[in-house]
Amino acid sequence: MTIRHGCFFSYAHGQHAYMSKFKDDLVDALKCYLEPHFDNEDELFVDGEQLGGGDDIDQKIARALCESVCMIVIYTPKYEAHGYTRREFAAMQLIERERRQWYTLPSHLIIPVIMTRHPVGLPLQITGPGMYVDFSRYTLASGDLKTNPDFLPDIEKIVHRVAEHYHCLKRCTPPEHDCSRFVLPDIPPEWRAIPPPQFPR
């Protein structure tokens, strides 16, 4: 197996400035601070930058996940509502299970970044594994994440965690491991029970 990406970026696409600017700002900040830790790998895999027309999307996504050190999840209520993003999340959980057989993981491979909280709270999938970083105070007035002192400590936490996993993976990956064999799982069920419809009395 060859490590090709520091982090796979998993997020629900948005059409308007708030979602797209947050994603772009976070990508820019992480690329800047991850770059010193890697040899020739890309800092991030972002589907909008690295998928082209004619690609077998499922195959390309599966391989990119397998060849990534960790996964960054931009959590919004929209993220958990989309089957495809839940599928990426489940795929990285499978990869984590496999890597646990190679070395003692210093932490989970999925790093949730909270952009917008769900009105009834964060799901267990996001809070259960432990560390997540809360950027829900971000607005379009927040400016550049990579130079904003309010957000830099959390950026540093993410970078440290990815760098730690990177060095473990470089040391411990079995040489015969082949990421071309990894396939995405089926779309998992909803993360929350859907309440029954409320009919007027």
Commentary on this structure:
This protein has 201 residues and is an alpha/beta fold. The protein is 39% helix and 12% strand. The chain has 7 helices and 5 strands; from the N terminus they run βαβααβααβαβα. It has a 5-stranded parallel beta sheet. Strand 4 (110-114), helix 6 (124-127) and strand 5 form a beta-alpha-beta unit. Helix 1 (17-34) crosses helix 7 (152-172) and helix 3 (57-66) runs parallel beside helix 5 (83-99). The protein is globular and about 50 Å long. The termini are far apart.
Question: What is the first-to-last residue Cα distance?
Answer: 60 Å
Number of domains: 1
- How is the biggest beta sheet arranged? 5 strands, parallel
Q: Which percent range fits the helix content?
A: 25-40%
Q: Tell me the strand order in the biggest sheet.
A: 2-1-3-4-5
Named CATH topology: Rossmann fold
| CA gyration radius, whole angstroms | 17 Å
CATH level-4 homologous superfamily: Toll/interleukin-1 receptor homology (TIR) domain
What's the CATH C level?
A: Alpha Beta
Shape summary: globular
Task: Please tell me the CATH architecture by its name.
Answer: 3-Layer(aba) Sandwich
Q: Enumerate how many helices there are, as a single number.
A: 7
Order of helices and strands: EHEHHEHHEHEH
The assigned structural class equals alpha/beta
